[in-house]
Write a structure and sequence with these properties.
16 helices; 36% helix; 3 domains; 7-stranded mixed sheet; alpha/beta; 7-stranded parallel sheet
Length: 451
């Protein structure tokens, strides 16, 4: 009997994945084991709701975790990088497969030769983004190249948003992903290539670079140019492309408020905030602004952070004008404070719905014709625990695990799903599960540019 060990730091993104694994396990005779970072509460909840035949592993007990990894065929890890690296070491030592939605980092990439030598597969970036975006984009690009097409422009955008009928706050926003994901939004190396001109986009200017996005069926969408499009150009094999853009889709208006959050320094994760007597969120916010014996806090924010009256009301709603403070906490960073308030005010409710969007736009030439190719995925969730984002993450990971267990993925080493040997079986399963793109293509006769 083949066995899958699912190691979780929390159950937030796990329910659709466990549903899928349990269903496939009944078909193929696989056993599912669950590991938690904390205690047996997660195990009990899953056992009561989903499946009685589930074992429990405590991730923080390294000996127990390594012992269970010896017994299984595939390990799925949804956990912080520091724990995932330890799990990867165990999987490599035991010649096991590890699949995770985590981004490929330098520490994990350094394990590639050891993984190959030990006949182990470490498959990363199998989530929503990165993950589903890789799989779908690479198949489209490879298909065009196989026909002999020359791709001049590739743009890819994605986002996870709360559904319109679940909006109940003045920010028109909720945390469909983790607060830490939002706090790190835009802090990577943001680079785009437009008509051969490289653009480095500083973090403090990122949100002012937002542009509207027109997608049929969705209103008031905007794109923020995020992450490294040159990295996409390299891994997708787009050396001929003179335009490569990567961005995140948000609801229009979010970029203006988040730009204010950045200008105020509220996403800072390093500066220590030490409040003196009777600390409060209002005093903290005032401490970020220049001293004035006469100006009110509202006027200070308007003058020095260029906030509007609407922005002030949003800050008040979030709690930054409250006279309260963390219980038992004296020294924190601005990001700690922002995260606490966001999780308190902007978390999704049990019946809230979300939706995910992926949009790939390609321009290419083939046989004296120019083509514009757009592929769009829009998928809505059911509720908080069965959200569109959790389904995208869970089904992408689950499809990869299924392909490994059935022998359809045989690669070893450290990989992301950009190779045909990986993305093809995964995408075939995802399409069977109903994850499909709407495609539009326009064809015009090629006209040579005269310079």
């Amino acid at each position: 009997m083949k066995t899958v060990l699912l190691l979780l730091s929390a159950d937030r993104f796990a329910i659709p994945l466990i549903d899928y694994l349990v269903s496939e396990g009944k078909t193929y005779g696989w056993k599912i084991m669950i590991g938690s970072m904390f205690d047996q509460a997660l195990y009990d909840r899953i056992k009561d709701e989903l499946c009685n035949d589930i074992s429990f592993v405590l991730i923080k007990d390294e000996k127990q975790c390594d012992k269970e990894i010896r017994k299984v065929d595939v390990v799925i890890g949804i956990m912080p990088d520091i724990l995932l690296l330890k799990v990867a070491d165990s999987c490599i030592a035991r010649s096991k497969t590890l699949i995770s939605p985590a981004k490929l980092n330098r520490q994990m990439f350094a394990k590639r030769l050891q993984a190959e030598e030990n006949d182990a597969l470490i498959l990363l970036e199998c989530g929503f983004t990165p993950g589903l975006d890789h799989i779908t984009a690479k198949k489209m690009i490879d298909h065009i190249h196989a026909k002999g097409g020359n791709i001049s422009s590739f743009k890819t955008y994605s986002g996870s948003l709360v559904a319109g009928d679940s909006i109940d706050n003045p920010l028109e926003f909720k945390l469909t992903s983790t607060a830490s994901d939002l706090l790190n939004f835009g802090k990577s190396n943001n680079r785009n290539l437009i008509h051969g001109q490289l653009q480095h986009i500083p973090y403090q200017h990122l949100f002012s670079r937002a542009e509207p996005l027109d997608i049929q069926g969705l209103n008031n969408m905007a794109i923020i140019p995020e992450e490294d499009a040159l990295y996409c150009r390299k891994i997708y094999g787009l050396a001929e492309a003179t335009t490569v853009l990567k961005g995140r889709i948000v609801r229009g208006g979010f970029e203006n408020f988040w730009s204010l959050i950045v200008r105020l320094g509220l996403t800072n994760t390093t500066n220590k905030i030490e409040m003196l007597e009777e600390p409060s969120y209002k005093k903290f916010l005032r401490s970020l602004l220049p001293y004035s014996p006469t100006l009110s806090l509202e006027d200070l924010i308007k003058k020095f952070a260029m906030a509007s009256d609407e922005d002030i009301e949003k800050l008040k709603w979030l709690g930054f004008f409250d006279e309260t403070w963390f219980e038992g906490t004296q020294t924190v960073t601005p990001a700690n404070i922002l995260q606490f308030l966001m999780e308190e005010k902007l978390s999704m409710h049990p019946l809230d719905k979300d939706y995910i969007v992926i949009r790939h736009e390609l321009e290419y030439s083939l046989n004296n014709y120019d083509y514009k190719f757009n592929a769009t995925l829009i998928s809505e969730g059911e509720d908080q625990r069965h959200s569109a984002l959790t389904k995208a993450i869970g089904l992408t990971i689950g499809s990869a695990a299924r392909a490994v267990l059935l022998g359809n993925i045989r690669l070893k080493g450290v990989h992301t799903p950009i190779k045909k040997e990986i993305y093809e079986p995964v995408l075939n399963e995802l399409e069977d599960l109903g994850i499909a793109f709407a495609v539009e293509e326009q064809k015009t006769e090629h006209v040579e540019q005269v310079h």
